[in-house]
Structure formats: C-alpha cells, structure tokens
Write a structure and sequence with these properties.
The chain is mainly alpha-helical. It has one domain. 74% of the residues lie in helices and 3% in strands. It contains ten helices and two strands; from the N terminus they run H-H-H-H-H-H-H-E-E-H-H-H. Strands 1-2 form a two-stranded antiparallel ribbon. Strand 1 and strand 2 form a beta hairpin. Helix 3 packs across helix 5, helix 3 runs parallel beside helix 9 and helix 4 crosses helix 5.
Length: 197
C-alpha cells in the first residue's frame, strides 16, 4: 500500500479532519483549544517529572511540542482564507496529522517567536537548521520514552532510556515554547487581543 493510500485510509477514522468546514473565527478558536490542550500536557508532564516518572514526563512534553506545532499549520490556513486564496485541505490535514510536520512547524514557530534574533552570527538560523535535522532523532527518542524495544540484542525499557536530565530539559524547553505561543496568540489571534481590550 502506497504512503498516499495509507494516509487517505487513515483519514477515514480521524475525527478532526473536517477543518475545511470551520469559519475563520472557529479556526482561531481551534488555535486556542490546541494551546489549552498543550498547556494541560505540559502541566501533566511537570507532575510526572516531580514524581520521578521521567520517561512519561518526556513523552507528554513531546506530545505538548507536537500539539503546539498544529497552531502554525492552522494559522497558515487562516491566512490563506483571509486572502481568499485556495487551500489544499488535503495537504493541511496531512501536516496536521503527521508527527514530523508538526515538529517542523513548532521548530519554525519557536525560531520566529521564541529565539532572540542573532544578526551577527546567525545562531538563531543555525538553531533552526539543527532542530530540523534532529527531527528523526527527536521522534525516535519519543518512541524510546513510550515503548519497550530491542536493539542489538538489548532490551530497551522507557524507564532506562530517558534520564532525569533529558526529561527536565524537554519539559523546560516546552515551557519556553508555550511562552512563545502565548506571545504570538496575544499578537495575532483576534479572539485574544479583542477580549483583552
């Protein structure tokens, strides 16, 4: 079965694939719902971290990161709709559901709203390039935090594959991502900035 056929087949059971029926206002509300869910995932990751459950804290922090990656995808659709441009909803849905696309999307958002601009040495650009190159490793690490596996004749247990430092680092980084989204939502989501008047 080709990847395209597999993807089309997977859409049949996914409940959130009717995004194209939402109004622009509802898409802005979707952004906030995604943010709220990401915030909850981060809170739960923190609880797990505080209770020494490092692999699961890492897992929920990773889920938070992916969840946040959906927001720029939705924002892209809103921008096109606002300009009356055609949208390839099939492509939008695919990005919305694909782990790697969400991670790449979140990397781009953090680059835009979370990093200080480094005009002289381009360290911000280098961060983005490195983060996007590391996507396969990031996803592998998420799987190691979730599933028992075997590699090279060795049993890999999540509780042994993710250390406290790795969990703390990701939970902390995801908090910075949430802060960057809070800034961007305050600047670009009319539901937020109109309600704050």
């Amino acid at each position: 079965m080709s990847e395209e056929v597999k993807f089309e087949h997977s859409l049949k059971w996914v409940p959130h694939t009717v995004m194209h029926t939402l109004s622009i206002r509802e898409l802005h509300e979707l952004r906030l719902a995604i943010f709220d869910n990401a915030e909850a995932l981060h809170r739960e990751a923190n609880l797990l971290l505080q209770n020494g459950m490092y692999s699961r804290a890492y897992l929920l922090a990773h889920f938070c990161f992916e969840e946040l990656g959906k927001i720029p995808i939705v924002v892209g659709a809103i921008g096109r709709l606002s300009k009356n441009e055609a949208i390839d909803w099939k492509k939008v849905k695919k990005r919305f559901l694909t782990h790697e696309s969400k991670i790449e999307s979140q990397n781009g958002h953090f680059y835009s709203f979370g990093l200080d601009v480094a005009l002289i040495h381009d360290s911000d650009v280098q961060w983005l390039l490195n983060a996007n190159r590391a996507i396969p490793d990031t996803y592998t690490k998420k799987n190691l935090s979730t599933y028992v596996d075997v590699k090279g004749g060795k049993i890999l247990r999540p509780c042994e594959e993710i250390c406290q430092h790795e969990a703390e680092k990701l939970v902390s980084f995801v908090f910075e991502c949430l802060r960057a989204h809070w800034r961007s939502e305050n600047l670009t989501n009319p539901i937020v900035y109109e309600d704050s008047r």
